[in-house]
């Protein structure tokens, strides 16, 4: 399932689900807006569901 994701998508999923980091922590560590983290994770999950 993760094979359909690009490197950046895998990184977000790993940080959120495997490392248990919150969206806020991911946002701070990657220095990107919180809203961007939320929308990217939402889109990644949708991509995985539809594959």
Automatic annotation (TrEMBL):
InterPro entries: RNA_pol_sigma70_r4, RNA_pol_sigma_r3/r4-like, WH-like_DNA-bd_sf. Residues 2-49 form the RNA polymerase sigma-70 region domain. GO terms for molecular function: DNA-binding transcription factor activity. SUPFAM superfamilies: Sigma3 and sigma4 domains of RNA polymerase sigma factors. Pfam families: Sigma70_r4. GO terms for biological process: DNA-templated transcription initiation. This is RNA polymerase sigma-70 region 4 domain-containing protein. It comes from marine metagenome.
């Amino acid at each position: 399932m993760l094979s359909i994701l690009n490197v950046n998508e895998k990184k977000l999923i790993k940080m959120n689900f495997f490392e248990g980091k919150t969206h806020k922590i991911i946002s701070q560590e990657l220095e990107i807006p919180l809203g961007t983290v939320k929308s990217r994770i939402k889109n990644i999950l949708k991509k995985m569901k539809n594959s």
